[in-house]
Amino acid sequence: MGKQWKDSRGISGFDQSGGEKMKRKGLKFVAIMFFVLVLSLGFAGFKSPKIGADSILLMDISGDIPEMVPYNPFWGLFEPAPITFLDKLMLLRKASADKRIQSVVITIRDNSLGMAKIQELRDAISNVKASAKPVYCYLEMEGDSDLSYYLASACTKIYTAPVSFLSINGLDSFYYFLGGLFQKAKLSIQVVKIKEYKTAGDMLSRRDMSPEHREMAESLLNSLWDQYLSGVSSARGKSKDEIAKLIDQYLVIPENYQEAGLIDGVKYLDDIIKELQAGKNLDVVKEKQYLNVPNEALGINMGPKVAVVYGVGSIVNQDPGMPPMMGSILSAEGMVKELEAVAKDDSVKAVIFRIDSGGGSALASDLIWRATQRVREKKPIVVSMSDVAGSGGYYIACGADAIVAEPGTFTGSIGVVSARIGMKELLGWLQVGTASLSKGAYAGMDDISRPWTDAEMAKADASIQGMYQVFLDRVSKGRKKSKDEINRIGRGRVWTGAQAKELGLVDELGGIDKAVEIVKAKLNVKDVNLVYKRKPLSLWKILTGKIEDEMVSMVFGPDVRGMRMAWQMSQLFKDGQSLFMMDEIVVK
Predict the structure, then answer these.
(1) Angle in degrees, CA 99, 57, 146, rounded to 5
(2) Phi, psi of 354 (to 5 degrees)
(3) What is the mean pLDDT of residues 488-508?
(4) DSSP class per residue in 405-465
(5) I want to staple 359 with a disulfide (CB 3.0 to 4.6 A). Which of 123, 147, 391, 551 is the partner?
(6) Which of 164, 365, 386, 391 is catalytic?
(7) CA 560, CA 563: separation in Å to the nearest integer?
């Protein structure tokens, strides 16, 4: 009789030796061969491609372009590895240095990039042009085109498809207020906050903008609009007033934009390429192919190792272990481990902390901040802010050796908010009875079957007052300013990167390239080797993440960012915890 075994259901049986053993060996062999196949396909993608002596680089800016993506072992087997934002920047840097690349053609379609990322790409395009290589843009738009046009305006020439629907109407920002929806759902929202500009809770509790919220929103939009007009006017050789007047005109078809001098021609992508190739023996190189050209072959990205650590998403204490509904998650648990690892790694000489986060848990933010200080004790750490680095996103940045932001970055939001979702009316409507027993005056504060009492509200307010003082202390020490100074520019107010630079909340304007310059100066070297580690995806995330993203995009379409923030905020607020969090600001 063979060995007794139990299957996953706990059912007993007996080992059928011989055939069963052979079957297990066969399955093991198949698994090993599959693993070898995955590895071989992965390594095949890293072969250095052959680039012609005279080539055109084709790039694409469309869809979702993530800051970073966790490593998926099935890339190359079922679908190609996604190209990240840093990859796009590196492609342009390579093109600047590569004598074989004669010009770059960039196709721009609807995409997920915010103002700051677009400014970073504009700078990278300018660097290619500075190397005496033209950059041509081909616009394929089906609607709102303002930010895409802002990016395109950095190029040498701008073209669009004959039936492309260009819609360049100016910038607008919009905000969701779900107070009425929650009221209809018979849910009550109680909010305590510091201070008047801390509007994160307004999305859930109000039906409209407060005066302070409107003041702040108008200031942000004015700053972005000035940046937009300055960038386009400089690139197109017109004054800001001229550009503003042209945008306000009734321009409809592509030819209208060409006549106005906002674009240079109306033609298809293949026509642009044929014209560039006319009379010349130019090869065409696609970005996925060119990405595999080794940096060393071009003499770039060489020198001491500098780790790029990504802080992307809503800040929470622990990784939920599965794809978060509607958005990225930045867990203190994982981030602290990553920062501690680079602090201990003697081969890493400096760290660039790339942040794209509107904050979240106060506790998690403080734990990450503490980990940055552990890094700083051993090596330089420089923050590069992406589209958003506000509230908790600014908290985790403020202790760095230097902070870099784009003019269009949303940052600041130094303040605290706490909210509680109550279900008393809903439970009554559903005829659900509740009973609660407690010991201690405040033991029932988490009881969602009733609202907070005045005493409980006062306790919640005192708690966030203490948190705010800690926030002020962290920033004042990191920025070498008094707490009174930080309080004046804090109070929950969001600033653009340009405004933050004037206020002393950031040190330099620019992107990750500017952060690299600061690191090189601190290390006294001519170049550095940027490295970044991709955290592997769990099997659950591999199987469910893509399906979830597609479902969310299908349901909410272009409004997905605002809906993601509403969902995440409702989840964070439901237990009344203190949050260093700013609301979502969507500009298009």
Answers:
(1) 125
(2) -95, 115
(3) 99
(4) E-TT-EEE---EEEEEEE-HHHHHHTT-------SSTTTTTT-TTSPPPHHHHHHHHHHHH
(5) 391
(6) 391
(7) 5
The range of the structural domain enclosing residue 498 comes to 302-414+479-571
pLDDT in tens, 334-390: 999 999 999 999 999 999 999 999 999 999 999 999 999 999 999 999 999 999 999
Q: Verify that 390 and 516 share a domain, yes or no.
A: yes
Domain membership flag for residue 127: yes
Six-digit token pair at 248?
A: 């306000």
Question: pLDDT for 241-290, tens place per residue?
Answer: 999 999 999 898 999 999 999 999 999 999 999 999 998 889 999 999 99
Cβ pair 155, 137 in contact under 8 A: yes
- Residue 108 contacts residue 140 (beta carbons within 8 Å): yes
At 40 the pLDDT is 52
| First-last CA distance in the chain | 72
Assess whether 327 and 348 both reside in one domain: yes
**Residue 449 bears catalytic tag:** no
Domain total of the chain: 2
Strand intervals (E) in 132-211: 135-139, 142-144, 157-160, 165-167, 173-174, 188-194
In sequence order, which ranges of 317-440 are alpha helices (DSSP H)? 332-344, 362-376, 392-395, 424-429
Q: How many CA atoms lie within 13 A of 112 on its CB side?
A: 14
* Phi, psi values for residue 34, rounded to 5°: -65, -40
Residues 498 and 543 placed together within one structural domain of the fold:
yes
Among candidate residues 91, 82, 89, 28, the one with its CA nearest the CA of residue 58: 91
Same domain, 382 and 498: yes
Polymer length of the chain = 588
Q: Which residues pair with 105 in a beta bridge?
A: 58, 136
352 and 497 assigned to the same domain: yes
| H/E element, 128 | helix 115-130
Same domain, 502 and 409: yes
Q: What is the mean pLDDT of the chain?
A: 87
Q: Which of 233, 264, 290 is the last residue of a domain?
A: 290
In this predicted structure, the answer to whether residue 77 has a pLDDT above a threshold of 80 is: no
Tens digits of per-residue pLDDT, 410-423? 999 999 999 888 89
344 and 262 within one domain: no
Shared-domain flag, residues 344 and 264 = no
CB 496 within 8 A of CB 407: yes
- Whether 104 maps to a domain, the answer reads yes
The reply to whether 97 falls in a domain is yes
